[in-house]
Design brief:
This protein has a seven-stranded parallel beta sheet, sandwiched between helices. The protein is built from four helices and seven strands; from the N terminus they run βαβαββββαβα. The chain is globular, with a radius of gyration of 14 Å. The chain has one domain: Rossmann fold, CATH 3.40.50.10110. By secondary structure, the protein is an alpha/beta fold.
Length: 143
């Protein structure tokens, strides 16, 4: 069954997605990052080319021919994926295909509406019996 991690209190959801995908890549975990719209996907694409500051994260779009070889794949609107290790969601609702992945990461920002939507997603997973873990980035960033 899919394991779901909630990272809450993110000051910059795109940067958090980069950090988490970089960590996954270092551990040999292939990642799909799903963006809610094309503009978010484009911004994330640009950020991944410069993250971390001394390197970049190899990535491409999920519909690209080389997607099977990439450790990080960007998705917007598609439901065909080259691998199903980790899904990082930047959406405000649960994705219909999340259960295809071994692990899902939901990133929740700091504003009240994003927090409310995050609580709704948490309840959705909890009500269906998924194993949940919560990581509070505000605590981690102050440590």
């Amino acid at each position: 069954m899919t394991k779901v991690d909630f990272y809450t209190g993110s000051k910059d959801k795109l940067r958090t997605a980069c950090q988490l995908s970089h960590k996954a890549m270092q551990n040999g975990v292939r990642t799909v990052i799903s963006a809610p719209d094309a503009a978010t996907g484009d911004a994330l694409d640009k950020l991944l080319w410069h993250y971390p500051a001394t390197a970049f994260i190899p990535h491409c779009r999920s519909n690209a021919a080389e997607a099977e070889q990439m450790p990080v794949v960007l998705n917007h609107g598609g439901e065909k994926f080259p691998h199903h290790d980790l899904l990082i969601s930047l959406h405000s609702e649960c994705l219909p295909f999340f259960s295809r992945f071994e692990r899902v990461i939901e990133i929740v920002g700091t504003d009240a509406e994003d927090s409310r939507l995050g609580r709704e997603r948490y309840k959705f997973y909890k009500d269906r019996g998924y194993e949940l873990r919560h990581i509070d980035l505000t605590t981690a960033q102050n440590a």
